[in-house]
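Appendix B. One record, verbatim.
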Amino acid sequence: MARWTPRPDGGRPEGRECVHIDTAEPEATPQSVVCRQCVVLGHDWVALRVCLTCGYVGCCDSSRHGHATAHFESSGHPLMRSTEQGDAWAWCFVDELYLQPCDVSRASTD
């Protein structure tokens, strides 16, 4: 289970907290390996994000439709993470804050 903590640079002033960290499901299983809404529309995407509440997979805001953000707006699920290889971050839509795995410093020294 990935545990999350605010990233030191967080994109926000030092000391800002995320009250949603404990709502993340233990490694919410992605529901797909594609943005299903983009597939239906016949469009490509730039990168994918997975909801840490339910596992919904949607395209990022740099993509044509921003389905990950649209999922947050319709569901209220606050946390998503990148599915891109090598990425180790998550985002809280509500607190507008980047998160990192709690063990990120340990993982980088192994």
